[in-house]
Amino acid sequence: MPSRPLPPGPNLPRPSFLTKTRVIFLILTISSVVVILFTIIYFLYHLWNSLSNRARTIPFDSSAPLKLQRFCYKELKNATNDFDESNIIGKGGSGTVFRGIVRDGKLFAIKRLDTLSLQTEREFQNELQILGGLRSPFLVTLLGYCVEKNKRLLVYEYMPNKSLQESLFGDGNSNLCLNWQRRFDVILDVAKALEFLHFGCDPPVIHGDIKPSNVLLDSDYKAKISDFGLSRIKVEGEIGLDLFSQDLGKSQELWKSQELSGNLGGTTGDQTPAIGTPVDSNNTEVDFALALQASSSSKNSKKCYNVKALNLNSFNYNANLASENDCKSGNNGKGKEVTSVDVGDDWNTKFVPYDDEFSSIDHSKELNSGANLGIDEAANIKQWGKDWWWRQDGSGELCSKDYVMEWIGSQICPSNPDWDDGKKATPEKLELDNSVQLEKLEDANENEPQAQALAFEGMEKGFEKTEPKGKKNRKKKHRKMQEWWKDDHLGEVSKKDSKLKQLKIRWKKGCKMPHFDLSRRFYFHRRKKFGEPNQDDCDANGEFSFRRGWRRKNNNSIGSDMWSGDLFSRELSSTTSMRGTLCYVAPEYGGCGYLMEKADIYSLGVLILVIVSGRRPLHVLASPMRLEKANLISWCRQLAQSGNILELVDERLKDEYNKEQASLCINLALSCLQKMPELRPDIGEIVRILKGEMDLPPIPFEFSPSPPSKLFSRSRRKQKASAE
Ligand SMILES: Nc1ncnc2c1ncn2[C@@H]1O[C@H](COP(=O)(O)OP(=O)(O)OP(=O)(O)O)[C@@H](O)[C@H]1O
Fold it and tell me: Where does ATP bind (predicted)?
């Protein structure tokens, strides 16, 4: 029986249709699996990337900077023609600055950080958070930034005349463009910039690194300050003790009432003497010591702040109004630097021979001041004394003395314009003269702490020769201090002094060596060998920045022609938390670690002297006859005592300067350089003095050519009594 064909079921799918659906289903499944896989891989990659980046850097919150443009790396790369060397306008310790044309065809300065470390990242963020939030005609404008992976770039307004450093010390005729009027205007501009920071910002901002290379000049030579990497935002009432109280009894009371290692609460600001008021020297010394002790002991209690957590308000600043307000409020509040980093920096200026004022403090007094306290406390103080001297050495670092010795050595070279005097001496004499000092310094470098001490004694004797007679007592104290140091610390020094040894060994093995190390030895060796100087080896007339290391002239770079000694720069930034630049950093900052407005005032004082004199703050000359001029600050003090301050004015200006203005500036600088921060004028007063709206406070009696009659009568009375 023939089978009937089955009628085609309307619902049964045809086989070809089935296959198609299966294929589509398969494709969809595979592609979604692939997409999911890729997503997972992408996610994992980013997770890994961010984790590995986080290990090296501080988390970055790009939303915080105010009104700054965010550039992509490619854009900045194009703007600088792939960071072409011909576009380099300067080199700093942390990065290279390029000229670039961005977006609307305008010229910009683009700073690219060379390496990314915790320190550079911190400074980068500081710059963004602080400078990025400020607008003032006296500050370089930060326009934008770029953050991509480990690339960090900052975009600034372009300053055609670069930095004051180049204008003052650059080669060629650049310094001629800084006539007297321009120099005075620069001083006023820098003062106004600081006035804006200290009084025009709420909370106040402390710059922390005022120096010529951070003062940039626009096309009209108007000065603006830059580089806020080390800046701090001040928080009112965070510091406990009035560190510089004049009232010894009160300080001791406070001191006793506090645990040495505990918190120091409360503030006293009512003991501030009038500017220029003579202070009993004994009290001064002990107070300062107590202050340092207090700050040292309160170190542990330091709180860390994140800059981002603070609301920084800068407003259209009316200088007069602000200073008025400030006068009303007293503006004496002590604050504490705001930082996300611990700033434990006990670089001790007292030991650096450049400030003989500080060297004169008898530290045995500090230790004795513990006598009234409990034995434990006294022991703590003594221990503190040690820590204080050698905190910098805590991790096997070189001590500040080494830096200064290195610097002095590197400064002695014939490329210095100030060698004119030296040239007058016969070459033999010159070599002999230097070798006397240098041998001592070299020997000191040869690891022996005793030798270091001797070498410094030698240097100090040089200064001593030119000291007026009236300073005998001070020198006596200084010796006492030196002896105290020798007795107490030589053992410690010898243990911790291995760093230099290691560096020397590396150098001998042919490794890269910081330029300054032993450069003078190298130089004299070469001179002896080849009979003439080699300028390339000894043009190290840079400056030492605690965060950057040494900088020297680099013939290859355009602009600042400066760079950091690589090895040292890295070692310092990774192992120390020192801040500021040698010779510009205020002594109390080195001792206490608290960055206050008056630290900026001190740096401004040094800057004023540098601008007026056209000299670096530490400048050792060939002839020992002129050794007293090596240290700009002590030289200025000596000139003030002999009533001859105008001798300090840059010889290159000849007679073409305003004598009244020059003497005002020098006297003002001396006021700013007083060792007691509270005696220094505040920035509002400084601006008014410079503008001629206020009289200069009486010159500090210690610099006065005719000390107050009270002192005379006191000494006469003493003489009389001893004669009787
Ligand atoms: N906005 C700018 N316009 C023009 N030139 C600039 C600008 N910013 C920096 N420069 C030049 O680049 C140089 C290096 O500047 P940078 O801020 O990197 O380092 P520095 O302040 O000299 O050193 P450091 O950062 O170690 O203190 C300056 O000396 C200056 O010549």
Answer: 111
